[in-house]
Amino acid sequence: MALMKMVLRCVLVAILLLTPLTSTNAASAQALQVYDGDTFKILMEGKKVRLRLYGIDAPESGQKGNVSAARFLKRSVFGNLL
Known about the structure:
- The protein is an alpha+beta fold.
- It has helices at 2-18, 66-77, and strands spanning 29-36, 39-44, 47-52.
- It starts with a helix and ends in a 5-residue tail after the last helix.
- The model has no long low-confidence stretch (mean pLDDT 81).
């Protein structure tokens, strides 16, 4: 559960970093694909960008907990404007 809270915090930090604070033309992004618990792809301004959450070491494919970590990240990013 602590890992999931940390992942959510990092997703929120990534969202804040992607949204310029001083610009009147704030960019928005849409989540396209989640690779695992700490890596996902977004579409931003017509470009596909692969993001890896800094400081998060989520389980990789084949490791215990990887399915639940990826599921948590999917619930956090899909359906939300980033």
